[in-house]
Write a structure and sequence with these properties.
The structure holds two protein chains of two kinds. Chain A is an alpha/beta fold. Chain A is built from seven helices and nine strands. Chain A folds into two domains: 126 residues, no CATH class; 62 residues. In chain A, the strands form two sheets. In chain A, strands 5-4-3-8-9 form a five-stranded mixed beta sheet, with helices on one face. Chain A has a two-stranded antiparallel sheet with strand order 6-7. In chain A, strand 4 and strand 5 form a beta hairpin. The termini of chain A are far apart. Chain B is α/β, with parallel strands linked by helices. Chain B has one domain. Chain B is 26% helix and 25% strand. Chain B has three helices and ten strands; from the N terminus they run H-E-E-E-E-E-E-E-H-E-H-E-E. In chain B, the strands form two sheets. In chain B, strands 2, 5, 6, 7, 8 and 9 form a six-stranded mixed beta sheet that branches. A two-stranded parallel sheet of chain B has the order 3-10. In chain B, a hairpin with a 7-residue loop joins strand 5 and strand 6. The chains are: A alpha/beta, B alpha/beta. At the A-B interface, helix 1, strand 1, strand 2 and helix 5 of A face helix 1, strand 1, strand 4, strand 8 and helix 3 of B. Strand 2 of chain A pairs antiparallel with strand 9 of chain B, so a sheet runs across the interface.
Chain lengths: 245, 150
């Protein structure tokens, strides 16, 4: 039999098919990626019986009322002022700003030793409930100091660490408009983002945002660095339930 | 001289369209890569705020979208809540979150983020109620939809 050439398929309509697919895709999708300001809501806790005393200097009070007027530490303020206040909250040694303590090899060793003694003593307490509660507390403290230790190991530089009781208390009102609420929240988080990025850049040569992005992408090797940045500049934001004023 | 021959009487030669499908496919793949599927059409009107501490979500499937704003085509200025493709009340939010948890892959359940599209003129009262409801079903991760200011 004579071999016949297989006739070529006419690809002229291929472009039409591809165009059809393209147009379908254009119609069913949107280009704007989902972006937003992230926030973690607090968990509901049982009412605490012996609440720890909170020192006034450890709390930065920011409040917005129903007329969108802003007040910082009991004084009228503008949205632009938030940045300076939050920056001071993390970095200032002033009397009205949160307590900070030095973290270096000596303070870490001292605290770790003290905690170890406390834990050993607590284990001898006969009262079971008290024992568990105290052990829990000390173990949390130990964990916190271990975080500081690894931060110091990575940066090789003693630093001032903000007290764990320091919080930014951001109070809004049911009558506040979302725009104002959001702007203030964004200012607070924006300062923290800048501080974290600057620190991360100088210590690890990469911004915190980049590290988080890589971590989200499955790169687990950056975990210690991310933790170190969080130890250095922790997010301390507290939003009390909005009241009707 | 005689080597240069002039074609005459034939007009301009047609451009080959053989590579057109390739070009169009390239475009198609580009759009497939950068675009995300549209979920539902908005029933409420909202204008997003702009901010700087903005996070870009890579995976839209973990977002539980709650829209808050004025209802489109309604004269009422009261803020309404849209879940999926209907106007609902705040009390429907727990069910909505549970439904979302059933839809995502088991490993992603803890990654779900309540993604709030809130109109800038909305009063915080309704947003606070939503937050309360989210807390009641232990949905603590939340994001306010916003644009990045450049």
């Amino acid at each position: 039999m004579a071999k016949k050439d297989i006739p070529e398929i006419n690809a002229g309509s291929m472009a039409d098919i591809a165009f059809l697919l393209l147009i379908f895709w254009l119609v069913t999708t949107t280009m704007d990626r989902d972006m937003g300001l992230r926030l973690t809501l607090p968990q509901e806790l049982p009412p605490c019986e012996d609440c720890p005393e909170v020192r006034d200097r450890n709390v930065l009070k920011i409040a917005v009322n129903g007329k969108d007027e802003l007040q910082i530490e009991e004084e009228r303020a503008e949205i632009e002022d938030v940045e300076q206040w939050v920056d001071d909250f993390y970095n200032s040694d002033a009397d009205n700003m949160p307590e900070r303590h030095l973290v270096n090899e000596n303070t870490i060793a001292d605290t770790m030793a003290r905690l170890a003694i406390l834990i050993n003593e607590t284990k001898l307490i006969p009262d079971e409930n008290l024992k568990v509660a105290l052990l829990d507390k000390y173990e949390k403290a130990l964990e916190e100091w271990e975080g500081k230790e690894s931060c110091l190991e990575l940066t090789k530089e003693p630093f001032m660490c903000i007290s764990k009781r320091a919080v930014i208390r951001y109070e809004s009102n049911n009558g506040t408009t979302f725009e104002t609420y959001f702007e203030v929240l964004d200012q607070i988080k924006g300062v923290l983002k800048r501080l974290r990025n600057d620190f991360s850049m100088s210590a690890f040569g990469m911004t915190y945002d980049q590290m988080e992005k890589l971590e989200d992408g499955g790169d687990k090797s950056l975990r210690p660095m991310i933790k170190a940045v969080r130890v250095r500049y922790p997010l301390r934001l507290l939003e009390p339930d909005a009241r009707n004023i | 001289m005689s080597r240069i021959k002039k074609k005459s009487g034939k007009g301009q030669p047609g451009i080959s369209t053989a590579s057109l499908p390739d070009i169009v496919f390239m475009l198609l793949f580009f759009f497939m890569a950068v675009a995300v599927m549209k979920t539902t059409d908005p029933l409420v009107e909202y204008e997003k705020p702009t901010g700087e501490a903005i996070y870009r979500f890579e995976d839209a499937s973990i977002l539980a979208n709650i829209r808050v704003g004025r209802q489109i085509g309604s004269p009422s200025k009261v803020s309404k809540i849209q879940l999926n493709d209907a106007i609902k009340s705040v009390d429907d939010i727990p069910d909505f979150i549970w439904e979302k948890r059933g839809l995502v892959a088991a490993v992603d359940v803890n990654k779900i983020v309540a993604y709030l599209d809130v109109d800038v003129d909305t009063k915080m009262a309704i947003v606070n109620k939503i937050k309360e409801r989210l807390q009641s079903v232990e949905q603590y991760e939340l994001a306010y939809s916003a644009k990045e200011n450049k």
